[in-house]
Amino acid sequence: MKLSRFLSLSLGAVALVSLAAGASAATDQKSFTITIKDHRFAPATLKVPAGAEFDLVVVNADPTAEEFESQDFHVEKVIQGGKQATFHVGPLTAGSYGFFGERHEDTALGNMFAE
Amino acid sequence: MISTFIIVFRETLEAALIVAIVLAASAGIAGRTRWVATGIVAGLAGAGLLALFAGRLADMFEGNGTEIFNAVVLLLAVVMLGWHQIWMSTHGAELVSESKSVGQDAREGLRPLSALALICAVAVLREGSETVLFLYGIAIDGELDARSMLQGGALGVVAAALVGALFYGGLLRIPLKHVFKVTGAILLLIAAGLAAQAAAFLVQAGVLPPLGYDIWNTSAILPQTNPVGFLLHILVGYVARPEGIQIVAYIATLAIILTASGLVRRMHREASVRPA
């Protein structure tokens, strides 16, 4: 009984600390998330700030690996199934930046609009 | 099967074209086939090994292990190409004058050949490990059509090798007098292009600043994804929407190799004019 109370208390403390850490990281830098599911991007289009740095988190929710690539803002990385990767991007000039999953180029297509 | 074919073909084509240029650049040098073959085999072995440890590599350097590795491997190729280029600036003329070159000094022939073998190894290693991982992924997915997809992959490798062979044949049609000039110029531009690629990987890893995006944007006129743009990307390092740092890396590589070749050539000439 005592042990379980101790455990739940410490778990709560850990959760609070990580929440605070997450919040402070979020204020430092904008972060955008794209999820790969069934070899498609969700969202397939997103707006990002022009002239500012931001983090782009790509989550691969498929069981298969995908190579996330853009020749417009120059990233290229294999993301294993169920894993995610964070890219540090920008500051971008205003415009449209395409990205794709190299292993499923027929369906995994997306666009980022820097405004 | 078609999609596997295309993916593997594209991954392999880059290595095949580089091997073709290296073979043309070393035409007539004794023992070059053995060296190039050694380079390819070493590259394949390295690719298999790399595929095996890909997961662990990716986790290194705070998740940037693959980027750092790619950049290091690319820069190694740039150094080797530069070395070959500088060496050729003094010995190229000799190679042409003794064009049959069978009796050429083995030690002299050896020096650029080891560099060329390494370039082949690096090209095969980089593209090969991705192909191995990709095909392995298909195999363990246990999809019903795994066999046909693996066949597609094999066909992709064969087709890329065929294109490389055709390219080699085309290069050989150039008279020997000019072939070193042409392949030398291509190798120089390949080196600059690889340096630009390395710079992009280092930006992705957070090591270098991008120094601006979209320095120009020619993707409407010549996208990197169409066959001509893709070929130019491999051969001269064409980028449709470059980062500032890529241009810096490209120009710096050209400048360093050309300056060093010029210096070495001048020293060589002075030494031969006034024999000690």
UniProtKB/TrEMBL annotation, chain A:
Recall the taxonomic lineage recorded for the source organism: Bacteria, Pseudomonadati, Pseudomonadota, Alphaproteobacteria, Hyphomicrobiales
Q: Where is the signal peptide?
A: 1-25
Which UniProt keywords are listed? Signal
Domain EfeO-type cupredoxin-like intervals? 14-112
The superkingdom listed in its UniProt entry is Bacteria
A UniProt-annotated Pfam family: Cupredoxin_1
Protein name (record): Cupredoxin domain-containing protein
Automatic annotation (TrEMBL), chain B:
Topology in the lipid bilayer: Multi-pass membrane protein
Q: Could you state one GO cellular component term attached to this entry? A: high-affinity iron permease complex
Keywords in alphabetical order: Membrane, Transmembrane, Transmembrane helix
Q: Which domain of life is it from?
A: Bacteria
One Gene Ontology molecular-function label: ferrous iron transmembrane transporter activity
The entry's localization annotation reads: Membrane
Q: Which InterPro entries match?
A: FTR1/Fip1/EfeU
Primary subcellular site in the record, as a coarse category: membrane
Query: What residues form the membrane-spanning segments?
Result: 12-29, 35-55, 67-87, 154-174, 186-207, 245-264
Which PANTHER family would you find in this protein's record? IRON TRANSPORTER FTH1 (PTHR31632), PLASMA MEMBRANE IRON PERMEASE (PTHR31632:SF2)
Belongs to which family? Belongs to the oxidase-dependent Fe transporter (OFeT) (TC 9.A.10.1) family.
What name appears for this protein in its UniProt entry?
A: Iron permease
Organism from which the protein derives: Mesorhizobium zhangyense
Its taxonomic path starts at: Bacteria, Pseudomonadati, Pseudomonadota, Alphaproteobacteria, Hyphomicrobiales
